[in-house]
Amino acid sequence: MGLMKMMGTTIVAVKRGTQVAVAGDGQITFGDRTIMKATAKKVRRLYQGKVIAGIAGSVADALTLLDKLENKIQEFRGNLLRASVDLAKEWRTDRFLRRLEAMIIAADADHLLVISGNGEVIEPDDGVVAIGSGGPYALAAARALARHSDLAPGEIARQALVVASEICVFTNDRITLEEIEGTGER
Questions:
Q1: pLDDT tens digits for 49-89?
Q2: pLDDT digits (tens, 9 = 90+) for 103-154
Q3: Is residue 171 a known part of a binding site?
Q4: Cβ atoms of 63 and 57 closer than 8 Å
Q5: d(Cα 82, Cα 94) in Å, to the nearest integer?
Q6: What is the CATH number of the domain that holds 170?
Q7: Would you say 168 is a known binding-site residue?
Q8: Which of 77, 86, 105, 159 has its CA 20 to 30 A from that of 134?
Q9: Could you list the residue range(s) of the whole structural domain that residue 151 is in?
Q10: Residue spans of alpha helices (H) in the chain
Q11: Active centre residues (catalytic)
Q12: In the chain, how many domains are there?
């Protein structure tokens, strides 16, 4: 039997105007049967609280990439888009980094982005995105709520994760939610 992988993450983000919310569940699963931790924090604030990032994938890999993203945001003086593109480029081309298995959702008052090791920086058309094992379920729920309700982004993200936790065995309902209410001024 080979090495068992730790997995089990769902991150969902919703952006409406300058309001953005990123939410993540707390479950880390070892293999396909054992819940190792139920209260992991996979969403955190960066750059003086102006950026929210959520991570999915191998825990050590994701944390390494999150630290690199934070350094890039500092380097580009808070410009999340430039920092994300630079990270994706480095992630794809660096011999060490390209082996890291993770994805990041990063958001500020202006942008909602998915960053991957394939060099992708994707901004969704509809202001809704999700990653991780329960990502497809959370994405579907969040899109439906965003289209057919007046709920705030934070409540949409929270409810989307609850729906995902009811379907995906690698997702629980121990939710960490971070929100930014931007003013639209820069």
A1: 999 999 998 888 888 899 999 999 999 999 999 999 999 99
A2: 999 999 999 999 988 889 999 999 999 999 999 999 999 999 999 999 999 9
A3: yes
A4: no
A5: 18
A6: 3.60.20.10
A7: yes
A8: 86
A9: 6-175
A10: 59-75, 80-93, 135-148, 153-167
A11: 9
A12: 1
